[in-house]
Amino acid sequence: MLKINVIGLGYIGLPTALMFASHRVEVVGTDYNNGLIAELNAGRTTFEEEGLDELFNDAVSKEIKFSTEYQATDVYIVSVPTPYDKNSKKIDACYVISAVKTIMEVCPKGAIIVIESTVSPGTIDKFIRPVIEVNGFVIGEDINLVHAPERIIPGNMVYELEYNSRTIGVDNLKIGEKVKNLYESFCKGEIIVTDIRTAEMTKVVENTYRDINIAFANELAKICRSDDMDVYEIIRIANKHPRVNILQPGPGVGGHCISVDPWFLVGDYPGLANIILAARKINDSMPEFVLERIRDIMDNNGLTDITRVGLYGLTYKENVDDVRESPSLQLLESQKKHLANGLKVYDPYVKTTIADNQYFNLDEFLKNVDLVVLMVSHDEIIENMDKLKNKIVLDTRKICTLEKVYTL
Ligand code: SAJ
User: Fold this and answer.
1) Distance between Cα 32 and ligand 1 center (Å)
2) Which atom number of ligand 1 is nearest to the Cα of residue 256?
3) Residue 379 C-alpha to ligand 1 middle, in angstroms?
4) In the predicted model, is pLDDT for residue 394 greater than 90?
5) Of 203, 224, 344, 400, which residue is the catalytic one?
6) How far, rounded to the nearest angstrom, does the alpha carbon of residue 88 sit from its chain's CA centroid?
7) What are phi and psi of 274, to 5 degrees?
8) Is-catalytic flag, 187?
9) Which mutation among 207, 209, 284, 347 tests ligand 1's pocket best, with the greatest number of atoms within 8 A of CB?
10) Which element (helix H / strand E) includes 124?
């Protein structure tokens, strides 16, 4: 059986490493963050995710080690972050490149490097292959390159790792079969082997598809608001059509994937990626639209003090602790752009201070606000809806069961 070194133990790398180990594949998980490795070695997981602790306990009882050092193994799975530059919208592959460089220092001849991190189409040809070749390694002989983009969704990662279909992009079908067999140790979904550029493009296309569909729902919300129609009722009825499936409008699109990946296509294909660009702009405009709704609702209710308005939820979606690109943070940025401040914020999953006027206790937060803006549908607020009875509520997620609630 092949031995694996998973590089980067974040949201994707950790569950992946644990999943292999729990299916009796020998795994070493590597991360350059000493603190993170110390936590894992002390028997603690490093983020909250449904089913992760159980998976962790099962894996550590089998074949897994955690280390800050890269290992000599047959296969490397690279799941390091791929940040993007907010202005140029281009991907920064520096972490992937540095991981590949370090792998070359320790790997045996013929090792397979699987890149799971999302990269923009063409990144492997433009940035990764040259790094390998310049070091005198022959791709296909000394090192085999694979791109197997992940597809799991925060909140349901453990289940989706096991049951989602996967794509494996390779130069050589024999390597494709090897890697496919490896993933089949735990993956029950269909595994499709294709070439690397197709795998890169497919990943970005999947997230772009979702971005465009969310943008459609958000645009409908704006249209309906402008002419006093109920967008939720319209979507509900339209979705009865057998070929219509409109998503839900919301306060914007966050996370490190859907709000980022479509920009790669816009950046690489200017003039061609038109609907994609329009969708990005619509979704990016939603936090500002929520701000406008807040102002209108304040006017309607004779509220003048912004410090009596609170945002419930700072994460990019429900029941996760990930705040990357979250609509709430985008909204707070917008507030700053208008030279304003004062909005209060609270999120049960965010335990450190990341914004001004932040609270760490629901009751304390509610005591200090009159208008509550529901930005994220965490279970906590659904279970405590009664506490909003005497508040003015703007519900951007359509979760509130109380009477007389404002919506988008
Ligand atoms: N959202 C809406 N309305 C909706 C659905 C979502 O406003 O009807 C918002 C969410 O609140 C959130 C954002 O969109 O802010 C994105 O959330 P999400 O749950 O749709 O997706 P992510 O970003 O958590 O994960 C996506 C997934 N991709 C697709 O569904 C095509 C996941 O499978 C990928 O693995 C992940 O991106 C990734 O890493 O690329």
Assistant:
1) 28
2) 23
3) 18
4) yes
5) 203
6) 20
7) -90, -50
8) no
9) 207
10) none
Give pLDDT tens digits for 45-70.
Answer: 999 899 999 999 999 999 899 999 99
Confidence of residue 89 (pLDDT cuts 50, 70, 90): confident
Is residue 257 among the annotated active site residues?
A: yes
Residue 195, classified by CB atoms within 10 Å of its CB into exposed (0-12), middle (13-18) or buried (19+), is middle
Q: Is 210 in the pocket of ligand 1 (CB under 6 A)?
A: yes
Which helix (H) or strand (E) segment holds residue 326: the answer is: none
| 3-state SS, one letter per residue, for the chain | CCCEEEECCCCCHHHHHHHHHHCCCCEEEECCCHHHHHHHHCCCCCCCCCCHHHHHHHHHCCCEEEECCCCCCCEEEECCCCCECCCCCCECCHHHHHHHHHHHHHCCCCEEEEECCCCCCCHHHHHHHHHHHHCCCCECCCEEEEECCCCCCCCCHHHHHHHCCEEEEECCHHHHHHHHHHHCCCCCCCEEEEEHHHHHHHHHHHHHHHHHHHHHHHHHHHHHHHCCCCHHHHHHHHCCCCCCCCCCCCCCCCCCCCCCHHHHHHHHCCCCCHHHHHHHHHHHHHHHHHHHHHHHHHHHCCCCCHHHEEEECCCCCCCCCCCCCCHHHHHHHHHHHCCCCCCEEECCCCCCCCCCCEECCHHHHHHCCCEEEECCCCHHHHHCHHHHCCCEEEECCCCCCCCCCEEC
